[in-house]
Design brief:
This protein has seven helices and nine strands. The chain is an alpha/beta fold. The strands form two sheets. Strands 3-4-2-1-7-8-9 form a seven-stranded parallel β-sheet, with helices on both faces. It has a two-stranded antiparallel sheet with strand order 5-6.
Length: 195
């Protein structure tokens, strides 16, 4: 399926691209990290569920394979285009007015810290229609409310097709609550990313 004109126009006008993923999302995220060019033109933020206090090599693996400059988010980092940011474990990542990050240590949401909802909801408030959010495979409902808030703020929201996801609950939750404006397969997502 070719992306429709409305989808493409809003995609090209966006300034930030957010990905939320949990169980089953690693393969598609790794492909995204490898495929996006260093001149992509948007800030990219990855919010991935990880076990509390579990040392992860994910940042190292992603950074070694990314064409785009990539870094783990630190408090007060300023968002810059052509940079890929990964939300750190054990913190919620928020986007603040003025286009910078803040890290929060409050309670887990959907048993997760970082929570996809927290980041998506703050992005909706700051970036509104200049925001694209893509929710991938996962085994709980985190991200669905954040997707709805982005959609209500005029942003573009895309859920991975549940039948295409290793764990369909997360994207299905965003579809069921009206948060996902578009439902795309992995291949359709990549077609859009590279368009």
């Amino acid at each position: 399926m070719a992306p429709d004109k409305n989808l493409l126009e809003r995609w090209r006008a966006a300034e930030i691209l957010l990905f939320g993923g949990s169980a089953g999302s690693f393969k598609i995220l790794f492909r995204i990290v490898k495929d996006l060019s260093e001149t992509f033109g948007k800030a990219v933020i990855l919010v991935i569920h990880r076990k509390k206090n579990f040392f992860s090599e994910i940042e190292k693996l992603f950074a070694e394979n990314s064409r785009m400059y990539m870094r783990e988010i630190e408090d007060k980092d300023i968002l810059k285009k052509n940079t890929m940011y990964i939300a750190p474990a054990n913190y919620h990542t928020l986007i603040e007015e003025g286009g910078y990050f803040s890290l929060d240590v409050s309670e887990a949401v959907w048993y997760s810290k970082p929570s996809i909802d927290v980041t998506f909801e703050s992005a909706a408030e700051v970036y509104g229609s200049k925001c694209v959010a893509i929710l991938l495979s996962g085994a709980n409902q985190d991200g669905a409310n954040g997707m709805l808030k982005i959609r209500e703020s005029g942003g573009l929201t895309i859920a991975q097709a549940p039948e295409d996801a290793e764990m369909p609950e997360m994207p299905r939750s965003a579809i069921n609550n009206g948060g996902a404006e578009y439902v795309l397969t992995q291949d359709e997502i990549f077609k859009l990313l590279l368009s």
